[in-house]
Amino acid sequence: MQKITIKKILNKKNKSPIACLTAYSKNTAQVADKYCDIILVGDSLGMVLYGMKTTRDVKIETMILHAKAVKKSTKKSLVVFDMPYKTYPNKLAAYKNAKKVIKLTKCDAVKLEGGTKIVNIIKYLVKRKIPVMGHIGLLPQTSKKFKVKGKNSIQKNKILKDALAVSKSGAFAIVVECVVENLAKTITRKVLIPTIGIGASKYCDGQILVTEDMLGLNDVSPKFVKKYVNLNKIVEKSIKNYVKDVKMKRFPSTKYAYK
Ligand code: KIV
């Protein structure tokens, strides 16, 4: 199994679709690692695992614990650490935090949300050998509402400008979240680095989803999420059956007992 490098990700642009998923734990990471090019330890864990209302309450220490588990459980995929809200307010703080994160978790790169406003921060990190993945379009850390972006020309121009700025700043890929199809197509054509879409159409160079969403474990279902299975239903049925077995003294039977 050959390790996926930043160079290999860059080389996939216009050649081979890049498959990415999130992982927050050992079990998911082990499976995702067999098939995915990139695994993102996303700050979406705040909502998905901890029941928070937004990603803004996620602490860097929490992310580090999850990232350590994910990184330890992967052999092949590139593992990206999602820098939480307010951990990159300026280039010095961003560097201090990103350096700590990479040292403690051994992740391969960090992801930062933002366009032209954070270009200097991205450049500063990349110059100091910290690989950066960008994130434009809908920005969960700062957006008040979940809303598709790029429906009017002002938004379109702004997001395209963000994409070009992030691409030129030295980032190795950009997550493009929740933008209309024709904007994703233009961005992907114009930038030199791979675009990774989430709700951003087939025109991106790669795709990412929150694993719990595509497995049907999380009860949010925006239009862009394809549910490959409804694990919630399976989990519910199994828990119901277990509780029934316990109450009826059917579990544990002799098969599960030590002699
Ligand atoms: O936090 C996250 O999981 C993300 C992806 C949705 C791209 O940023």
Describe the structure.
The chain has 259 residues and is α/β, with parallel strands linked by helices. The protein folds into two domains: 6-228, TIM Barrel (Alpha-Beta Barrel), CATH 3.20.20.60; 231-259, no CATH class. The protein is 40% helix and 14% strand. The chain has ten helices and eight strands. The protein has helices at 6-11, 26-35, 45-48, 60-72, 91-105, 119-127, 153-168, 181-190, 211-214, 231-247; strands at 18-22, 38-41, 78-82, 109-111, 132-137, 173-177, 195-198, 206-209. Strands 1-2-3-4-5-6-7-8 form an eight-stranded parallel beta barrel, surrounded by six helices. Strand 3, helix 5 and strand 4 (109-111) form a beta-alpha-beta unit. Helix 2 crosses helix 4 and helix 7 (153-168) runs parallel beside helix 8 (181-190). Bound molecules: 3-methyl-2-oxobutanoic acid (KIV). Residues 22, 40, 42-44, 82, 175, 198, 208, 210 line the site of 3-methyl-2-oxobutanoic acid. 3-methyl-2-oxobutanoic acid is lined by residues 22, 40, 42-44, 82, 175, 198, 208, 210.
